[in-house]
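[stage:ingest] chain + small molecule (carboxymethyl coenzyme *A)
[stage:ingest] validated
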Amino acid sequence: MNLSDKKATLSISGSNETIEFPVYEGSVGPDVIDIRKLYAQTDMFTYDPGFLSTASCASGITYIDGDKGELLYRGYPIEQIAVNCDFLETCYLILNGELPNAEQKADFDNQVTRHTLVNEQMHTFLRGFRRDAHPMAILTGLVGGMSAFYHDSTDINNPEHRHISAIRLIAKMPTLVAMAYKYSLGQPFIYPRNDLSYTGNFLRMMFANPCEDFEVNEVVERALDRIFILHADHEQNASTSTVRLCGSSGTNPFAAIAAGVACLWGPAHGGANEACLQMLEELQANGGVAKVGEFMEKVKDKNSGVRLMGFGHRVYKNYDPRAKLMQETCKEVLQALGLENDPLFKLAMELERIALEDPYFVERKLYPNVDFYSGIVQRAIGIPTSLFTAIFALARTVGWIAQWNEMLSDPEFKIGRPRQLYTGPAPRKVKKIADR
Ligand code: CMC
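[stage:predict] done
[stage:export] tokens:
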């Protein structure tokens, strides 16, 4: 962190004293006021529910400029990564800070590929779930359960253990997600195959069965790989902050990532892609394009509780660069699969057209986010709606683990412990039960 020449000065009414706080500069983006001594100096906390103005950490992994619609992984624009790199190269970059050369890439791909099998006992663990369990419920349990299977990589103070657990998590997530899917169908689990790419292998574990192998379609493989790249990290979002907070207690990586999976499940975060597709399907069943206007009135009515899922973002207030890339992929996949006239895609386009012209959305700077299109792509590929968020979790695992690792390596690392503004009763006496 670079100390700036600037200082922030605070004066509090009723006192003649002013207090100065140091300011740190980021490499790009806003500076931060270091208020760590505020409480000691003023006996006051800051109040910022939802972290609207609070940097919870310093991080060198991902940068977002919400006004410009810019997303960088380790300084590289997402638009360049999406067309020049595959998902495992992106993982290497996010974990290590630099893009791999050919030799490093081959070595990293090999490491991940050699860890895709899960302990056979995990199959038994999974069989304890109901067949109709939500994949995110299963995934939260399985990822947390990994700490019981891989004891030999849970020493968080050992960088080698941290590296192995990162590789294990990235490698085993596709296997676990595919297992959750196969279990819901009542089909046998398909073991990973080392001669396929990371994404090709995942597609095969999802769609092959023992009686019939599965041929990986290149367009589909590229599309899913892009979904993984676009979801790989997104700085201090809710699930990443959850992983950091959970990991700050010193818990093992599998437990911390399981907390991230649980947080991601919510419809305001990773659950939005599932919620978006459900919204489109419901609208399609209730009149489709003809009813878009009526639906939009409901969205704009605060009392209806209806939101246009896949629209809006806490940080992107211009456009979501991932959405642009996903829209491209969406068109490519629908064309390759002969689904250009897919009614849901047409409905989504109509919703987008109306929203982008409507003053309600324009004034609030609400634009389509990545989930608006990713659901349509996944549906076209044959992935069931209930699995969308699990796919997001699979992709975000690298971001979570890189951020967790960065936190543990930070010399300023401390357990996360937010403060509060207490608004409950002042101290009072407990009356005997007969007197209450
Ligand atoms: N539909 C209708 N109105 C909306 C929407 C929406 N999707 N999003 C925000 N608004 C309105 C909101 O009612 C509020 O209006 P007003 O100022 O009149 O009260 C204003 O826009 C600001 O909304 P907010 O809830 O204060 O914004 P936020 O930054 O707290 O929320 C959000 C961001 C993503 C939770 C929200 O936009 C939302 O619920 N979107 C739908 C869910 C979604 O698509 N989430 C995926 C996010 S991208 C994937 C990821 O990173 O996880």
